[in-house]
Amino acid sequence: MNLEAQKLYEEMKIHLGKVVPDFELAYKAEIAVEINQLKKERNAVILGHNYMEPVLFYSIPDFKGDSLDLSRKAAQTDKDVIVFCGVKFMAETAKILNPTKTVLLPSEKAGCSLAESITAEDVRALKRKYPGVPVVTYVNTYADVKAESDICCTSGNAIAVVESLKTDTVIFLPDQYLAGNVAKETGKHIIFPALTPAPLASPHFGRSPVQNGGNEGGLDVQMIGWHGRCEVHEKFTVEDIRTVREQFPDVVVVTHPECSPEVVAESDFSGSTNAMIKFVRESHAPHYLVLTECAMGDNIAAANPEKDLLRLCMVRCPHMNTITMENVRDALLHTQYVIDVPEEIRVKAFRAVDRMIKIG
Q: What is the set of domains in the chain, with CATH numbers?
């Protein structure tokens, strides 16, 4: 191990000595040195999402954070190459904001169950059924879906985005649970309609709620959702929380708003990945139960060694898990896998993403 790798190994051991085996730290430190050299040669920036495995998260990214944070960093970078350690929709967002730059996704298998749950044609069909109603699309979607939207949002600013529209009725896509949680926080009634060919007549967008197609139960429609879910967060249940509370009555439960509204209601705090990190860092509790993707739980534990984080790691995101130190190195070595967004789609998607970033 050369001096540079030795230094990096020692730095990682400070954070990860109780999380990652020593031999893995030493091996990955040498790969990180290769990556950092390639990064200089290619004039590249590496963005690392909070769900990255701990060794990667604590070594090579120039910037780390949630989708909104990294979208901002992507928009501001002056580097020629952006390597996005995340999943495809995130890399697409970077390309939407930086059309002249080369954007690389280290794994071609890094998709997303939530992004796959909806298509651009689905959005167009909803707009035909609810003409004039603004479309808010979660950033966890592909570029062609963003292009059909009025504005994007993240889990961290979803409520602010909905409220910024100053309208009674919104279409909120595609996460069923995030939509339900936002509806609850904003006091809106939500439905999940079947797509039928009959459009509504004369919706009064911005003045009074659109009536439910079919008017089931005579309820006004204030939010129109979609049946998309994150395959990680949908696995957490109220029973999980209650079982842990039986053993640890003083535990503080922290959840992501992609969990079901029932799970969020049972927790003590719910927020975006950055908000969860900040909550654990700044609060004081005997125990924490963090219900989100496993790697992020490990990263929070590594950043807060003095705090007791209980383990309830049911599943690692299979898509995030395809991003490794090795394929980050290979992406820079071989310029793989390049993310492209057709210009017509990119321009339309840019408007929605840019509005999201400006809201903050």
A: 3-110+320-334 (3.40.50.10800), 115-229 (3.40.50.10800), 233-310 (3.40.50.10800)
Which residue carries 């590594």 as its tokens?
302
For 288-314, write each residue's pLDDT tens digit.
999 999 899 888 988 898 999 987 666
pLDDT tens string 79-115: 999 999 999 999 999 999 999 999 999 999 999 999 9
How far is the first Cα of the chain from the last one, in angstroms, to the nearest whole number? 43
Which residue(s) pair with 220 in the sheet? 211
Distance, CA of 159 to chain centre? 15
Tell me phi and psi for residue 210, to 5 degrees: -70, 140
Which pTM value belongs to this model?
A: 0.87
| Burial state string for 226-255 with b = 16 or more CB within 10 A and e = fewer than 16 | bebbbebbbebbeebbeebeeebeebbbbb
The three-class DSSP label of residue 174 is coil
The per-residue DSSP string of 195-248 comes to --S-PPSS--TTTSPEEPTT-GGGPEESEE---B--TTGGG--HHHHHHHHHH-
The rounded distance, in Å, linking the Cα atoms of 10 and 25 is: 9
- Max CA pair span of the chain: 72
Helix axes 343-359, 88-97, angle to 10 degrees: 90
- Tell me how many degrees the CA angle 207-357-341 measures, rounded to the nearest 5: 105
Helix ranges restricted to H, 77-141: 88-97, 120-129
Sort strands 223-224 and 251-255 into parallel, antiparallel or unpaired. unpaired
Pairing of strands 287-291, 251-255: parallel
Nearest CA among 211, 198, 159, 152 for reference residue 353: 152
Instruction: Please state, in angstroms and as integers, the Cα–Cα distance from residue 134 to each residue in 62, 242, 338, following that order.
Output: 36, 38, 32
